[in-house]
Amino acid sequence: MRLSRYFLPVLKETPSEAQIVSHRYMLRAGMIKQASAGIYSWLPLGYKVLRNIERIVHEEQVRAGHIPMLMPTLQSADLWRESGRYDDYGEEMLRISDRHGRDMLYGPTNEELITDIFRSHVSSYRDLPLTLYHIQWKFRDEIRPRFGVMRGREFLMKDGYNFDLTKEDALHAYNRHLVSYLRSYERMGLQAIPMRADGGPIGGDYTHEFLVLAETGESEVFYDSEITDLKFGDREIDYDDVAQCQAVLEEFTSRYARTDETHDAALFDKVPEARRRSARGIEVGQIFYFGTKYSEAMGANVQGPDGKSVPVHMGSHGIGVSRLLGAIIEASHDEKGIIWPEGVTPFHVGIVNLKTGDAEADAACESLYKSFTALGLEPLYDDTNERAGGKFATMDLIGLPWRITVGPRGLKNGVVELTSRRTGESEELPPEQAVARITAIYGLASA
Ligand code: 5CA
């Protein structure tokens, strides 16, 4: 993309309404614009990152054997009356009536809708196990929407639902989700720690939240510091291997780690004092096993191997896709702006032309641009007439992990400058080598 043709409405001033750094940078970098309280338009740069996060979530869910689909945002109140949650959900639910006076609602989650789909089409244990998921907008009429996309009213969530014959099978589904979430967050450059939590309006008392530690987080958490040393990394995992998934769950949940809702001071005291931590965290996901809560209420039964009809065991599993943008920025920024991890960056590399209009500099930039594009990478080329200082400030603010600076002086010696946004370190090297370096970083074979 050429910056001269892009839509990147960068703000010079810090917006006064933004209280936390991720919200400030998302507004300043022209990623989002508030449409009304807790509801945002996703401008091109923000939209790109949102799509990248979605892609990682999809890839990891499909890898775990879960099946993508799409359910609507608007739902009929009748299904929620069946589960009993229409009255329970309270003021957070946005209730609407259509022209015929039918009660509708903007879905805050989808347990009812998916259970209805399941009971309409599945009646035998032979069709199990089954895990369906979608990535769809949700609406919760939060009393205090704040911090930009972090606590929105309209927000994008991945929600997945497993249907199993037995509790053991459903717990395996729970473990599969835990593993796939660890992988997903690490690919986004985040450490998200599973912590024992509370079921809330979803239900069930077996649930973990995934928390990214950050001072601006809304949750208070207590944990054994040893847990922060754990990494999933690139180990192989067979999602059908029950013991292997169980072992990962045990590895990541055996140490003390709880949100304030389930915090147990007596148990916490057993952790050696030097390792006891209390901190703030951002909840970026939650997994639940709730047994037959919805299947019993809504008659989602299957015929078991013995011919008896039994309600299925279920769980639901959510990732806060839009909230993750805020969480990633909270975890990865400096005083100049955002620092995107390679896995989610909106453009792979920025190209800064120090002297737009200079024939040699223009040609060198064009050549870099073409090389990256041919390799399937997306460069953002600043071909505007802005001063060099302004160009650098914009690149630093929008946080592309790599920048190539091209100017007449360097070109005389046959070199450009490659700069890491994270470390600030720069290196001069011939353009072809800069391309090779970047392609290697993104795991592609260079030309
Ligand atoms: N049905 C279950 C799992 S699919 C469910 O709704 N779980 S949840 O309530 O925990 O939401 C899942 C994730 O959505 C949360 O972990 C959080 O990351 C994100 N989320 C929840 N509320 C908001 C909100 N108001 N703004 C942005 N993200 C939110």
UniProtKB/TrEMBL annotation:
EC numbers for this chain: 6.1.1.15
Domain Aminoacyl-transfer RNA synthetases class-II family profile, first and last residues per copy: 33-341
GO biological process: prolyl-tRNA aminoacylation
GO cellular component terms, semicolon-separated: cytosol
Main location (coarse class): cytoplasm
Range of residues in the leader sequence: none
UniProt subcellular location: Cytoplasm
Group of enzyme by EC: ligase
GO molecular function: ATP binding; proline-tRNA ligase activity
Catalyzed reactions per annotation: tRNA(Pro) + L-proline + ATP = L-prolyl-tRNA(Pro) + AMP + diphosphate
Keyword entries, A-Z: Aminoacyl-tRNA synthetase, ATP-binding, Cytoplasm, Ligase, Nucleotide-binding, Protein biosynthesis
InterPro entries: aa-tRNA-synt_IIb, aa-tRNA-synth_II, aa-tRNA-synth_II/BPL/LPL, Anticodon-bd, Anticodon-bd_dom_sf, Pro-tRNA-ligase_IIa, Pro-tRNA_synthetase, Prolyl-tRNA_ligase_IIa_type2
Record carries keyword 4Fe-4S: no
Binding partners and assembly: Homodimer.
Cited PANTHER family: MITOCHONDRIAL RIBOSOME PROTEIN L39/PROLYL-TRNA LIGASE FAMILY MEMBER, PROLINE--TRNA LIGASE
Family: Belongs to the class-II aminoacyl-tRNA synthetase family. ProS type 2 subfamily.
Purpose of the protein: Catalyzes the attachment of proline to tRNA(Pro) in a two-step reaction: proline is first activated by ATP to form Pro-AMP and then transferred to the acceptor end of tRNA(Pro).
Protein name stated in the entry: Proline--tRNA ligase
Name of the gene this protein is made from: proS
